[in-house]
Specification:
Elements: H1 5-12, H2 22-25, H3 35-56, H4 62-67, H5 74-85, H6 88-101, H7 106-113, H8 116-130, H9 135-139, H10 145-178, H11 183-230, H12 236-253, H13 258-266, H14 278-292, H15 296-299, H16 308-339, H17 360-409, H18 416-440, H19 447-470, H20 476-495, H21 498-502, H22 518-534, H23 539-546, H24 548-557
Helix pairs in contact: 1-6, 1-19, 3-11, 3-17, 5-11, 5-16, 6-16, 6-17, 7-14, 7-16, 8-16, 8-24, 10-11, 10-17, 10-18, 10-19, 10-20, 11-16, 11-17, 11-18, 12-13, 12-16, 14-19, 16-17, 17-18, 19-20, 19-22, 20-22
Pfam family, one: SSF
Keywords: Cell inner membrane, Cell membrane, Ion transport, Membrane, Signal, Sodium, Sodium transport, Symport, Transmembrane, Transmembrane helix, Transport
Family: Belongs to the sodium:solute symporter (SSF) (TC 2.A.21) family.
Length: 567
């Protein structure tokens, strides 16, 4: 059951990438209604709506709406960031990949995780000290505001759009399988709840929904991992040995010879040929690592804390929770090999998983906890999608209202009330667009959208942020040219890649043969920023370079940085 890298990307995003496993979830069949799951989901919705009502009373200004007034603690923000990354797609997709290929299933989780040190050591403190609401505040700090913010807003909206489509399609497919609800109903429910969270509660409601969801998911995954290990005397070695035996037996049943069956069984404990060529491996790894440091809804979370110390603390806590979660998925995946692959009740006649290849963790939940725990896991999976789409929507709304409306159109003269009004109108529009596109793309393979979101973030946002923060010679023209080159190159190469050119458009062979464009588009963006900046002799370039010392002092010391609001 070996899948290509983009099909796996559809299974994984987090984030955070997340919820884009829709195409791989399985056949479009409607299951019997799971009333336990629906009851638990209703309880979660009631809790989160109560949080939204509480948050609405505290959301009076644009700072409240965008960043919760900067009053979220480092621990709380770290848990919320982890909630953004620990998506249902990560939970289902990584465990399913481990179920299929063993050790190889960790390739994406490791790629996501190693992006966090970049944020911690290079960006977290500087982002908090320089920015206020969006990452464009940082990218444009010493540059001409209009062109830089327009490029940043376009990049943000494209990343958010592809993520949102993937989330909505993922929600429809997942809930049709788990809850027995029709696809369209599931998409509308997610869209309506997402709108309510963001429209009324802003970042405060979104943060606390993510915190509650993260705690639920961590608790559920911990229970599953402990329940699996308990069956083997809490010996991972015994679990892995049994998994090798099961895979060997399955290979023998499939007609493999004794030596071949043993080889296939042992293969799950080592890296295999999951990604066929080194170029795709490096490119996908670069997208995961550097895309994490360029995702606008993740970067926005650093403005919700009161100071740079809390920003660093956020990354440390988030890294810990995310790392712990990925360890749990490793145990869950191997537990599914042992407990799910050997139970005919979870399998189709041909040996495939009931409900599709990404249902390994869901079936394991029933195996270790019965129908009650299955209902809880189902509710947590849906809750995860709700939390992620809320964060994405808020990020897109801030790009329109703060970067485009308040700064570009109104030249910084917009009052708080009008900016907040534009934000809420944008939330409503994004929700309607997301619902419509979610329904429109029901039958499409949306794997490329998640891959493209990470590639766009790594190719456009990350080079712009890094060089604007750390290079004194960077200029407005360089940032704008490099951001656009990275954005367009990643977009075009992805369209020409196998994921779209062959799978979606039906051509015989791709023009661009690799699974991800990042290894080409990201260096090209860096090169363009450098080349245009060093050849820029304009008066604006002199102003840009002269502004670097002041920017560095503020980024390193926090002098002049915006603080938290008192409520």
């Amino acid at each position: 059951m070996r899948r290509g890298p983009l099909a796996l990307a559809a299974s994984l995003t987090l984030l955070p990438i997340s919820g884009a496993h829709a195409h791989a979830i399985g056949p479009a069949v409607q299951q019997a209604t799971n009333w336990t799951a629906i009851g638990m989901f209703a309880a979660f919705v009631a809790l989160t709506l109560a949080i939204t009502r509480w948050a609405a009373r505290r959301t009076r200004t644009v700072s409240d709406f965008y960043t919760a007034g900067g009053g979220i603690t480092g621990f709380q923000n770290g848990l919320a960031i982890a909630g953004d990354f620990m998506s249902a797609a990560s939970f289902l997709g990584i465990s399913a990949q481990i179920y299929a290929d063993g050790y190889d299933g960790l390739i994406y989780s490791i790629g996501f995780l190693v992006g966090w040190p970049i944020l911690l050591f290079l960006m977290a403190e500087r982002l908090r000290n320089l920015g206020r609401f969006t990452f464009a505040d940082v990218a444009s700090f010493r540059f001409a505001q209009t062109p830089v913010r327009m490029v940043a807003a376009c990049s943000t909206l494209l990343v958010v759009l592809f993520y949102l489509i993937a989330q909505m399609v993922g929600a429809g497919q997942l809930i049709r399988l788990l809850f027995g609800l029709p696809y369209g109903y599931a998409v509308v429910i997610v869209g309506v709840l997402m709108t309510m969270y963001v429209l009324f509660g802003g970042m405060t409601a979104t943060t606390w929904v993510q915190i509650v969801k993260a705690m639920m998911l961590l608790g559920a995954a911990s229970f599953m991992a402990i329940a699996v290990l308990a069956r083997f005397g809490f010996s991972p070695e015994a679990l892995f040995a049994r998994a090798v035996e099961v895979k060997t037996a399955l290979a023998a049943l499939a007609g493999a010879g004794p030596d071949e069956a043993v080889a296939k069984g042992r293969a799950i404990m080592g890296p295999g040929g999951f990604i066929k060529d080194p170029v795709s491996a490096i490119s996908i790894g670069a997208a995961l690592m550097f895309g994490t440091a360029g995702l606008p809804h993740i970067l926005m979370r650093f403005f919700t804390v009161p100071n740079a110390k809390a920003a660093r603390s956020s990354v440390l806590w988030a890294t810990g929770w995310i790392g712990y979660f990925y360890i749990l998925t490793f145990v869950i995946g191997f537990g599914a090999i042992v407990l799910v692959a050997t139970d005919p009740g979870f399998l189709e006649a041909d040996g495939a998983l009931r409900g599709g290849s990404n249902m390994a963790a869901i079936h394991l939940a029933q195996a270790v906890g019965g129908n009650l725990f299955l209902g809880f896991i189902s509710a947590v999976a849906f809750a995860t999608i709700l939390a992620v789409v809320a964060g994405l929507t808020l990020s897109g709304a801030s790009a329109v209202s703060h970067d485009l409306y308040a700064t570009v159109i109104k030249k910084g003269q917009a009052d708080s009330a009008s900016e907040l009004r534009v934000s809420r109108v944008t939330v409503f529009v994004l929700a309607v667009v997301a619902i419509l596109l979610g329904i429109l793309f029901e039958k499409q393979n949306v794997a490329f959208m998640v891959s493209l979101a990470f590639a766009l973030a790594a190719s456009a946002n990350f080079p712009v942020l890094l060089l604007s923060l750390l290079w004194s010679g960077c200029t407005t023209r360089g940032v704008v040219a490099g951001g656009l080159v990275g954005l367009l190159t990643a977009l075009v190469l992805t369209i020409l890649s196998p994921a779209i050119w062959v799978t979606v458009l039906g051509h015989a062979a791709p023009i661009f043969p690799y699974g991800s464009p990042t290894i080409f588009s990201m260096p090209l963006a860096f090169l363009t920023i450098w080349l245009v900046s060093i050849t820029d002799r304009s008066g604006r370039a002199a102003v840009d370079k002269a502004g670097y010392p002041a920017q560095r002092i503020r980024s390193e010391t926090g002098i002049g940085a915006s603080g938290a609001l008192d409520h």
